[in-house]
Specification:
The complex is a heterodimer of chains A (about 60) and B (about 240). Chain A has about 60 residues and is mainly alpha-helical. Chain A has one domain. Chain A has two helices and no strands. In chain B, strands 1-2 form a two-stranded antiparallel sheet. The chains are: A mainly alpha (about 60), B mainly alpha (about 240). The interface between A and B is large, with 33 and 40 residues.
């Protein structure tokens, strides 16, 4: 296991490279999901406002 | 050739629903392929006879570089389609691709620097490949900055699409920079069937390559759905879709 983590002495370069990549992958998933959830929420709010305006007596 | 599928993609509700249906079909195979590629690249592939274990950075660096180019290609072509045929959906695709491409251009630069230090003795050199990739990253930032500078969506679409199309010229420059100029950067590892590496090293790279591609398409599909919803704020189909 130590040999694997040691990476032939290149661990200060190999592991940070993998860490950066997978942090960015994770952030991409998080941002995309949050963006979609917010867009759906905003759309739902707009539709609710439209319905309320239609139901209001003239 | 039947182009009906292409014309149907111009319809926002069709695009929104298709992107939603495709997301899991991209995401799950991507997760499996990246996991298999990681096991192959970090455990099963032997160390390189010259670079030792440092070459394992390749398994994240090369697919990230590919994504940075592929996303720019998608952005530029979609921007061109949006400009020529005034297709709003194409502008939505271009706007959704930009943050993904920018993030992977940054990963390419960072992982490349981390690979460069033990191999070349420096984190950075003004080499044609490195410089053109940095320029690609700046193009992405410029594209996103330009979009946010306009309040009116149509003007933002048109102006940013022009930049995306003009910037397409950098994509072949990044790719062929190692062929056209004397470069510190190594040449293509796998090109048109000619392999510069043994099978045990190539297979994990291919798995990561396909995995990263599918991953980026799944994120693109999610971003695209959000972009379409924001653009179609007053459309009737949105009411049915959000279930209000």
């Amino acid at each position: 296991m130590m040999n694997f983590l040691w990476m032939g002495g290149y661990y200060p370069f190999v592991w940070p490279a993998y860490a950066v990549t997978f942090i960015v992958i994770g952030l991409n998933i998080y941002w995309a999901k949050r963006l979609l959830a917010r867009a759906r929420q905003a759309a739902r709010r707009r539709v609710e406002v439209q319905i309320d305006m239609q139901e209001e007596p003239a | 050739m039947n182009w009906t599928w292409f014309h149907r993609l111009a319809s926002p509700p069709y695009l929104y629903r298709t992107a939603g249906r495709l997301t899991p079909w991209f995401a799950w195979p991507a997760a499996i392929l990246i996991f298999a590629g990681l096991i192959g690249g970090l455990w099963l592939a032997p160390p390189d006879y010259q670079q030792g274990d440092a070459y394992r950075i390749m398994y994240v660096h090369v697919p990230s570089a590919w994504l940075s180019l592929m996303m720019y290609g998608i952005m530029g072509i979609a921007g061109g389609i949006g400009l020529i045929w005034r297709m709003k959906a194409a502008h939505a695709v271009a706007a959704s691709a930009a943050p993904i491409g920018a993030s992977f251009a940054l990963v390419t630069l960072v992982t490349g620097s981390l690979w460069g230090k033990p191999m070349w003795g420096t984190y950075w050199a003004w080499d044609p490949r490195l410089t053109s990739e940095l320029f690609l990253f700046l193009l992405y930032l410029g594209y996103m900055g330009l979009r946010s500078a306009f309040e009116e969506l149509q003007r933002a679409d048109r102006a940013s699409a022009v930049l995306a199309v003009v910037g397409l010229v950098d994509v072949p420059i990044v790719h062929y920079s190692v062929v056209w100029w004397n470069s510190l950067h190594q040449g293509a590892l796998v090109f048109l069937g000619r392999r510069a590496m043994p099978f045990s090293m190539t297979v994990p790279l291919m798995l990561m390559f396909v995995g990263f591609t599918l991953f980026s398409l799944s994120v693109l599909a999610m971003r695209l759905r959000a972009e379409v919803l924001n653009r179609e704020r007053s459309a009737r189909w949105v009411r049915e879709e959000v279930g209000a």
